[in-house]
Write a structure and sequence with these properties.
Number of helices: 3
Number of strands: 4
Helix content: 25-40%
Strand order of the largest sheet: 2-3-1-4
Number of domains: 2
Radius of gyration: 17 Å
Order of helices and strands: EHEEHEH
Largest sheet: 4 strands, antiparallel
Distance between the termini: 53 Å
Oligomer: single chain
CATH class of the largest domain: Alpha Beta
Strand content: 35-45%
Shape: globular
CATH topology of the largest domain: Alpha-Beta Plaits
Length: about 130
């Protein structure tokens, strides 16, 4: 069994419902080729290293899966035709990926608030110096 990770970047303006729809579409496509999905999640909106189709930001999504026979070329060809996907990269993992825990929305929102508070404190300290 081989393990792969596909990182794909989506338009930054997509709302959560549209991201979930695209994620389900990509997951379905991978399952259709005989793969078993280990992790599939939205990594977050980030600044791109360079402009892609005149966008400076993009929403990063990660898909980790195991497959008995590689179909990376088929997946890459399919992703190339998708207008909603700005860029993608598929790499082979030599070890099995760690299964990501599903977090409750309440827990993740509390963690996000803590992260925002920490960032604000660091920004204030930096401005004082």
């Amino acid at each position: 069994m081989r393990y792969y990770e596909t990182l794909y970047v989506v338009h930054p303006d997509y709302e959560d419902s549209r991201l979930e729809e695209l994620q389900k579409t990509v997951d379905h496509r991978v399952k259709k080729c005989g793969a078993e999905i280990v992790n599939s999640y939205v990594w977050g909106k980030r600044r791109l290293a360079y402009e892609v189709e005149k966008y400076r930001y993009g929403t990063y999504m990660i898909l980790q899966y195991s497959v008995p026979e590689p179909f990376v070329d088929e997946l890459n060809d399919w992703m190339e035709l998708q207008e909603t996907i700005l860029a993608y990269l598929t790499t082979r993992l030599y070890d099995a990926p760690v299964i990501r825990e599903n977090r409750n929305d309440e827990e993740s929102s509390e963690e996000k608030k803590d992260e925002v508070d920490q960032t604000m404190e660091q920004t204030q300290k930096a401005e004082e110096v």
